[in-house]
């Protein structure tokens, strides 16, 4: 007798995807035009009607195939592909690394603005002396 849980429990997969999307059962129920108890029943069901699965997938922002093929291991593998060349998590789609300090750019801009104001004051003083 096997004690392992079945890998194809669609309800659990829906529940996990919903949780990963930071969505409460109430929010999913509202998107589907039903109530929280119905969502709870769906998430406890091992199988779900294909048409209902498509409707749920749309509300979750995924495909029905994504729900059917979902596993926590695949999610971990997916997110592990988002590393840059340094092994750190990158937030750039192509793995690009920022090669300048943004604060240096802010300071540079500020200095340019201050210099422009000084030039303006100098020009106005010169203008007033001429009159």
Q: Short description, anyone?
A:
With 131 residues, this protein is an all-alpha fold. The protein has 7 helices and no strands. The chain has helices at 10-20, 25-32, 36-43, 50-60, 64-68, 72-80, 102-130.
Structure overview:
The longest helix has 29 residues, at 102-130. Among the domains are: 10-68, lambda repressor-like DNA-binding domains (434 Repressor (Amino-terminal Domain)), CATH 1.10.260; 100-131. The protein is an all-alpha fold and 131 residues long. The relative contact order is 0.09. The chain is elongated, with a radius of gyration of 28 Å. 62% of the residues lie in helices and 0% in strands.
Please outline the helices and strands.
Elements: H1 10-20, H2 25-32, H3 36-43, H4 50-60, H5 64-68, H6 72-80, H7 102-130
Query: Strand percentage, roughly?
Result: under 5%
The average pLDDT score comes to 81
Give the helix level as a range of percent.
Answer: 55-70%
Number of helices: 7
General shape: elongated
Structural class: mainly alpha
Low-confidence runs (pLDDT<50, min 5 residues)?
Answer: 84-90
Give me the Rg, rounded.
28 Å
How many β-strand stretches? Answer: 0
**CATH level-4 homologous superfamily of one domain:** lambda repressor-like DNA-binding domains
Query: Separation of termini?
Result: 102 Å
What is the second-level CATH architecture of one domain?
Orthogonal Bundle
Order of helices and strands: HHHHHHH
| Biggest sheet features | none
> CATH class of one domain, please?
Mainly Alpha
CATH topology of one domain: 434 Repressor (Amino-terminal Domain)
